[in-house]
Amino acid sequence: MNEKENRIFSVFLSIGSNLGNKEKNIETAYKNIEKQIGEIKSSSAFFYSSPEGFVSENDFVNSACEVVTDMNVNDVFAATQRIEKEMGRIGKSVGGLHSDRIIDIDILMIDNLIIESPELTIPHPRFHKRNFVLTPLCEIAPEVIHPVLNKSIQELKDIEYGTFRKK
Asked: Is residue 109 part of a domain?
């Protein structure tokens, strides 16, 4: 028998919304993730934050989840883009210019994979510098190790936002 062996991946996603019923948008995104990507193993509480990188009167609701899937990286990425589009996301950030959005789904990490392509960088290159990502991710995965920085999510949060201070 020549059976193809499927690999199971642990995918960490960050989900945010600052338009409409933000909490409902994230709950809808979670339902779509379960339908299109895989089982959500854990999800964080909702965290509220001001926009970073652009000016808006609309605060964000942010959450993070861990999804177990047998989909490859490109298929996971395509699914997150499809979910955003199906939910009404019109444009993506271009050249570091951000805007209000009904839903934003970012792939933070996929196991210990390191990927750099024009379309996708895994782990997400800036998530360790964003408290609105680190706080929910730390709630569900404090011991997970960042494959490039070789520090746990808890350590990254402590270094960036408080516990460890440079002297």
From this structure: yes
